[in-house]
Amino acid sequence: MRIELRNRINAAMDELNYVPNRLAGGLSGTRSDIVGVVVTSLYYSEFASIIDALQSALLEHDLQVMLANTRYDADQELRLVRSLLSWRPAAVAIIGVDHPPKVVELLKASGVPIIEMWDTGGAVIDTAVGFDHARVGFAQAQHLIEQGYRRIAFVGSVRDNDKRAQKRLSGVQAAAAEAGLPDIVRHTTQQNGSPELGERLAADLLKNHTEIDAIVCNSNVVAFGVLNEARRLGRRIPEDIGVIAFGDNEAASCMTPSLTTIRPDRERIGKATADAIIARIDGAPPRATTVEWSLMVRESTQRPR
Prior knowledge:
Elements: H1 2-16, E1 34-39, H2 48-59, E2 64-69, H3 74-85, E3 91-95, H4 101-109, E4 114-117, E5 127-130, H5 133-146, E6 152-157, H6 163-178, E7 185-189, H7 195-208, E8 214-217, H8 220-232, E9 242-246, E10 260-263, H9 266-281, E11 288-290, E12 294-296
Parallel strand pairs: 1-2, 1-3, 3-4, 4-5, 5-11, 6-7, 6-8, 8-9, 9-10
Antiparallel strand pairs: 10-12
Helix pairs in contact: 2-9, 3-4, 5-6, 7-8
């Protein structure tokens, strides 16, 4: 009976876009000094630099960060967003521009500034700070093609709710098609990205697709495993196979061979998000801010001419 009642209450809350107010009744019309920050993962600290830069900048304005992690789960995203809004935050910063419809409704109805981070490739609720992930995927494939690679595969963790990875994949596919290359081979999974996952995916890929001469990895950590497995199988990098990834971190330049990858400017995204939050609180109109990324060309794609 208790579960049935809870389900009925949740259904009513969804229908009414109801958000409880955790502040005292006398303060119901005020906002707190909290900025809700919603990320999709804390795995391998993908967003750590963004959060650090964001928090540092907000502290200068006496605003505190309240962090939530959805783990790429749409239902959890809805629960966490509703919970954050119940604290009457000064603003909400959330990863991505693709959210479940009910989350979009709640955020639009909240009346607070909403800053979507890390992605600008789609419809924006209010304000966005980030970059176009499809353009990143296109650049990854284009770099491989310029180096003479022709049989491209896309490897890594691509979850149903990870729209940014899907956009990068679409960019890779578009670049290959534009160059008149064969369809890329997609070898992905819903599991968390890790070096061990990269090894398993690479082993299976290279066993069943011996023609592959270039691999686009969805993340650096997956690429580390791909590099290890390719060496174990006797495939030379970059002579036989080129490997490019997304994310960049300190380890990427220390690998043997060093890893070519895309470096997003995480600190700039965090700072620009904080600037956007303050501007919106002060009454500035919504806007989209594009933060450029860099292609870090290293040994894993520098094929001898």
